[in-house]
Write the structure tokens for this entry.
Amino acid sequence: MWNMLIKPAFELAGTIVKGKQRVKEAEISAKEKAIQSKDNWELEMARASASSWKDEWLVLLFSFPFIMSFIPPMVPYVQAGFDVLAEAPNWYSIGLGVMISASFGVRIYDKFSLKK
């Protein structure tokens, strides 16, 4: 009688363990695919930016106020420009920051997605 109870119980336990293993393997596989997809996207973006002047343009754009700050006649213009930008709407500043970060490869999305 005990054999009739013990054998099915062990079989059920084995089935449950195998099911949990399959679920874990599926989760690991999904994570690996997500990482590979992310790496592929970054590689494509690197290839696309190889012939782009976007990054160089942004470096020049940010270099001008820095350089002009060391030329005394230009300092008032630099200061006036920053004063105007300080009054810009928040959405504009955030949007500009996101565009610049995306251009230089900073991963803002990852920082926000970690909070989930």
In short: The chain has two domains: 1-51, 52-116.
